[in-house]
Amino acid sequence: MFIEASEQRVVNVQQLENKLNLQPDPRQRLVLLDKLIAHYVFSNIERAEELLGELYKILRDIETPDLLLNYHLYEATIKNQMYDYDEAEFHYQTAMAMLQERGTVNQQTEVYIDYAGLCINKTDMERAHDYLTKAGKILKTFPSERLKARLICREGFLQLHYGNYSKAIEMLLQADKMITMLQSPLDLKDYYFLTLIHSGLGQIYEGNDEPEKSIRARRKVVEMCEQMGIRTRLSWHYLSVGKSYMAQGEQENAEGFFRLALENADDASEDARANAYANLGFCYMERDQYQKALELFDLAHEVYSQKPEKNNKNFSNVALWRGEIFQKLNDAEQSLKQLEMALHFAEKTEDYQQIANICKELAAFHARHSDYKLAYQYQCKHDEYIERYHKDVDQRKQREVEAKYEAEKKRQETELLELKATRLQLKALRAQMNPHFMYNALNSIQNYITSHDVDSATKYLAKFAQLMRRSLEYSDLEVISLEDEIEFLEQYLVINEKLRFEHKLSYEIIIDEEIEEDILCVPTMIIQPYVENAIEHGLRTRENGLIKVFFFLFDEQTILCRVEDNGIGRDRALQLQMNDPRYQNHRSRGTSITENRLRILHNNNAQKEEVFVHTHDLRDSETGLPLGTRVEIKIPILEIKVSPSSQSASSL
Fold first, then answer.
1. Which range has highest mean pLDDT (272-286, 540-554, 590-604)?
2. Domain residue spans in the chain?
3. CA–CA separation, 397 vs 410, rounded Å?
């Protein structure tokens, strides 16, 4: 399967390259460049960067927002694979900002999943969890098996980080099954995720002391990368297989993979190359080929020296191995020098186990040379650091348990809040239409029928039926577009105006021009209880009632809705309410439930004591007489809605 797909991909890429060479028109070149870069970001970073340079140059002259978005996504992917995480973050953040204005649902979900991967690389697990949660919420509304599999893969790596191996294996195997069973042909990024999955499994098996399984998983990664041309991190994969063979004591196989890591020119990681030199040197040392081993250690040291601040552990290992070789060569002076250098670098890492091991070697060295005082001092130092190491291990295990506990607690809290919000939604929908509204509306329709006004009866019966049907449909939805919410509200107000109050009520709905109501999604039927409250308590006794509903963009995550009426005011409404038992419980059933929904839905971003609904009395500035009531509701923007026709996967 891999070979056939890979051969076809090579043919397609070569055809695109040929077309690019013959295409002079900049706009046509943009399309070809975009398709080629989508392939090269996983197979040939050097070529991808070359083409990206031309893409960006053309985009400066020809404004093409969709391709500019892709440019940032490609750059983010490349920088992430080249371990330049800060630059990758810049491009991801830029892309996510652009997606607020344009892009498909799948693109938004995909970027959240990919950005979570970057956060995992940066060990920012809390942010990774947050973005995976965002992606999961979108996938509930716009399902995609491909993106769901990638999401589960990332969640598996979160569990791997927390040391929850059983859960991590479960998730990674589930993601593997979902990707391999996709109906549509796999793209290069699907295979890239498969390599992540089996690389993660190899790491888990190694941690569980199952070297044979680890070798099989890691060799599968290498096979996939070789056959599909995914070469950007191939050196690391060769290195991992070699280390697994070393753990099995199979030196010959290990050496073969370390050499492959050195021969691969496509992986941009010099660290992988240096590690291959060092591990290959260790293999030669084990075979007593000391001169060859020292040459390889020198090469590793030279590469490590390019980034000395991050390679203290590697410097320490190389020096320790050199010390061992010089000891076997009976060069005591060089052996001591290397051991002391190894200790110097180890102390910079605060790796207590490494420090303890080197102290033990130094104690043995001085004992062999009859310097028992220094031998005793280093032995004491060994005992001190081995104790600190065990204490550190205990603390690390405790932190891992705490992290697992917090992650599970957060997951359960999220699920509980979602369940609570759903229950409240159903309660709110049951309390939504008070019986007086429905009775009066149907009674008015009946009057049209008995007075033989068939046209009006038919017209308003259809409107009433449509309103009831919508309320039932929405009971199954957590979110709807603001446009649908406003249409529902307008239908409700029309029936109140024409049927229930017989033209004694009028209304206005005003939408700020900054709001794109067709793509912003809000909680289902969130405004209607406040409009109903205004009608029931403010306008029911008025002859010329007026309701105004305004929608403003409060911030990037919130819409501010203002419901104003010219009613009798809260004080007078309360007096009437106390004397009319039919309406005493209306607010507690409607708006109070909605306020609980808002509190839960705002939970992730809100301060604990924040209030999301504010009610103001409107009064005459001179007389102080009531002029009505204004209610301001902060509504969370839950999603960005894109029409199904534009839900294609992004080119990355």
1. 272-286
2. 431-646
3. 20
